[in-house]
Design a protein that fits this description.
This protein is an alpha/beta fold. 51% of the residues lie in helices and 12% in strands. It has three domains: 102 residues, Helicase, Ruva Protein, domain 3 (Orthogonal Bundle); 167 residues, P-loop containing nucleotide triphosphate hydrolases (Rossmann fold), CATH 3.40.50.300; 105 residues, Orthogonal Bundle (Arc Repressor Mutant, subunit A). A hairpin with a 5-residue loop joins strand 6 and strand 7. It binds adenosine-5'-triphosphate and magnesium ion (MG).
């Protein structure tokens, strides 16, 4: 046997050079196409460098438009200025989802020994203010996914009021969200405080997404292992799906893995198409897992009908299987009783159907005349066995 060359050994790893470059946790040194937005964020926070308070800033944009990455980059730059009195705290509110938790986290940031529980809110507030005041701190608190804070009006009110209560130092906020109607939920006072400045991140177009992918391809893949056409396809798919860079990167990563597993040397369109299918399914099962139990049961009922070969479903010309709404309801009621739940009325049932359709899990068509009068027909959009599996894991493993 001849000893392998380094080339052979590298080849064994397949087409990737460094997969981490494509992971959602990797941030490139340079964020493309966001110079304008980054400048706006810098302008909002710059006053702290001259000893005054930063403007509160609210950032909105659809998912995967680079909001978190841009804010983090600006905050890093600000910290790199090395000004002692400037403190920067970045929190994801999915984890710190109440005023209490946010304040507590801020305090442990400057006082790591601070015990985690047992303090009243008033004491936390005082502690935070003492720190800011004593050290003349200019605090910038970035709250990512701010819409997940349960008592956000209270939080915004508290942090704005802090500036009135402080003799020295100041507090400002950067709120980030991808929920379009989130602002309407705020009371007008907190809205106007939080949105002192506003910035909107527009979705990326196909060309920009391609640029973002190309930047990663250079570092993540071996030379010439991603076809131009596959790149175009990934960018086009992600552009039509809200211009989401995270999704574009995921498609490319999965397509690369598929190409690898098929021992192909180059990522091609067919790999991207398959990657899209898998990614969409993953997304759907994630959505299913967060549905309320009643809707899960409904979906489960539909999936069991879909698997029941004795059931006389309606098959359309193009091979699509449609189910009668009334029969799906009966199946749903049966399942409710079987799992010890009270079935909801048909009015609720129709509402559930509407929600499931909005989430893209089912679709509904009105039957033409002749089929049992006028009725709604339902189609399951995903493979029934997988839908069942996703729900079984949650619904039927509870004790
Ligand atoms: N302009 C860009 N250049 C390079 N990579 C980018 C750019 N914008 C986004 N990305 C990458 O896309 C992914 C998503 O970006 P980011 O997390 O900032 O999105 P987001 O707007 O915060 O989305 P969400 O609303 O879902 O939190 C990250 O992996 C990020 O590195
Ligand atoms: Mg984000």
């Amino acid at each position: 046997m001849v000893a392998p060359s380094f080339g052979d050994i590298l080849d064994e790893k397949g087409i990737f050079l460094d997969k981490r470059v494509l992971s959602p946790h990797y941030t490139p040194d340079q964020l493309l196409y966001r110079d304008g937005e980054i400048t706006s964020i810098m302008k909002a926070v710059a006053p702290v460098l001259k000893g005054s308070r930063a403007k509160n800033l609210f950032i909105y944009g659809k998912t995967g438009t680079g909001k978190s990455a841009s804010v983090r980059q600006v905050l890093q730059k600000l910290e790199a200025e090395g000004v002692q009195e400037i403190a920067v705290i970045y929190l994801n509110c999915k984890v710190y989802d109440s005023r209490y938790k946010v304040l507590q986290k801020c305090i442990t940031q400057f006082n790591p020994d601070f015990a985690k529980t047992g303090y009243s809110f008033a004491l936390l507030y005082e502690k935070l203010l003492d720190w800011v005041e004593e050290k003349n701190i200019r605090l910038i608190l970035a709250l990512d996914e701010i819409d997940t804070v349960k008592d956000l009006d209270n939080l915004v009110y508290t942090l704005t009021r802090a500036n009135d209560d402080l003799g020295k130092g100041c507090v400002s906020l950067i709120g980030i969200s991808n929920k379009i109607n989130f602002k309407q939920r705020l009371d007008p006072r907190s809205k106007s405080s939080l949105c002192e400045e506003e910035l909107i991140f527009q979705p990326y177009n196909a060309q920009q997404l391609k640029g973002i992918l190309e930047q990663r391809v250079k570092k993540g893949f071996k030379p010439n292992s991603v076809g131009e056409s596959a790149l175009n396809l990934s960018s086009a798919i992600a552009a039509s799906d809200n211009g989401d860079a995270r999704y574009a990167l995921l498609l490319l990563l999965r397509a690369g893995e598929i190409a690898d597993s098929q021992k192909d040397q180059v990522v091609l369109d067919k790999h991207v198409t398959l990657a899209q299918k898998i990614a969409d399914e993953d997304k759907a099962y994630e959505v299913i897992s967060t549905l309320p139990a009643q809707q899960q049961i409904l979906l489960y009922g539909l999936a069991t009908l879909a698997q029941d070969v004795s059931y006389k479903r309606l098959v359309e010309d193009n091979g699509e299987k449609l189910y009668f709404s009334g029969e799906v309801y009966e199946q749903y009621s049966r399942l409710c009783k079987k799992t010890g739940r009270e079935p909801r009325t048909s009015r609720w049932y129709r509402e559930y159907l509407g929600e499931l359709e909005m989430l893209g899990l089912i679709s509904m068509v009105e039957s033409g005349k002749g089929i049992r009068g006028h009725t709604t027909l339902i189609k399951l959009e995903y493979a029934p066995e997988k839908v069942k599996k996703a729900i079984e894991k949650i619904l039927f493993t509870e004790n």
